[in-house]
Design a protein that fits this description.
CATH architecture: Alpha-Beta Complex
Number of helices: 4
Shape: globular
Number of domains: 1
Helix content: 25-40%
Order of helices and strands: HHEEEEEHHEEEEEEEE
Radius of gyration: 17 Å
CATH topology: Creatine Amidinohydrolase
Oligomer: single chain
CATH superfamily: Creatinase/methionine aminopeptidase superfamily
């Protein structure tokens, strides 16, 4: 059952989303060669708690970190380790905030770089990442009353596959609010007819996710930690995500 948020609840989620956006921005600024994944995780938790919120991901049973990290071929749910970032890596940071009873969720992927160096094949990586950003931006525009989840899904798929990349089919966006994962599911691909997908209603809060690979779409569990998912073919992967609320006049990004 889809949980429709009232005006007050949306305002609360907006406050939490602002905190999350600020935290994610600060963590992304610290991404550079030599920084460890655990250092980024510790920074995220420190900032979240300083701002009066809680790490949302720590409320997931069995998960003990404030962020998920996605270095290179890691798709999602990567557990932070002592791995230190290297020049040319790409790093995705997925973070969640729990504030006054509500979750928000957001992710961004960047290239690890030091401006003194020229990265070999950086144009290919930049094109890959810019495709995900564009897909997310266009998908968010579809989150409006009168449209359906399928409008979001088709937009993501058209842009990602149009650039000759692969949408991951086993991982999807989702409703978000009192729980980190709520109905409806929001796939990055369209299976069947748009008219058969859930209607977007005013007050729906959803986490729109663009999860895609440079190579094929197949993924595997890796690292024997029960969480980390990687590309099966070892190709690069990226994730871009924002929490938005559906309104009569269009989507409002809560984690902007």
């Amino acid at each position: 059952m889809v949980d429709i948020k009232n005006k007050k609840e949306v305002e609360t989620m907006s406050e939490g989303g602002r905190i999350l956006a600020e935290v994610l921005f600060e963590v992304l600024k610290k991404i550079k060669p030599g920084v460890s994944e655990l250092e980024l995780d510790q920074l995220a938790e420190k900032l979240i708690r300083e701002k009066g919120a809680e790490p949302g991901f720590k409320k997931v049973k069995g998960y003990n970190h404030s962020i998920c990290v996605s270095a290179n071929d890691v798709v999602v749910h990567g557990v932070p380790t002592e791995y230190r970032l290297r020049e040319g890596d790409i790093m995705g940071i997925d973070c969640g905030v729990f504030y006054k009873g509500f979750h928000t969720d957001s992710a961004q992927t960047v290239r690890v770089q030091n401006s003194k160096f020229k990265i070999q094949n950086s144009d290919d990586v930049d094109r890959f990442l810019s495709t995900g950003k564009r897909a997310l931006g266009e998908a968010i525009k579809q989150a409006k009353v009168g449209n359906r989840v399928g409008n979001i899904s088709k937009t993501i798929q058209d842009i990602v596959e149009g650039a000759r990349y692969s949408v991951v089919r086993t991982l999807v966006g989702h409703g978000v609010g009192r729980e980190l994962h709520e109905e409806p599911e929001v796939p990055g691909f369209l299976a069947g007819q748009i008219s058969k997908t859930p209607m977007l209603l005013e007050g729906m809060a959803i986490a729109i996710e663009v999860i895609y690979n440079m190579g094929k779409s197949d993924v595997i569990y890796a690292n024997n930690d029960g969480w980390t998912i990687k590309t099966k073919d070892g190709s690069l992967s990226a994730v871009f995500e924002r929490t938005v609320v559906v309104t009569e006049v269009g989507s409002v990004i809560l984690t902007k």
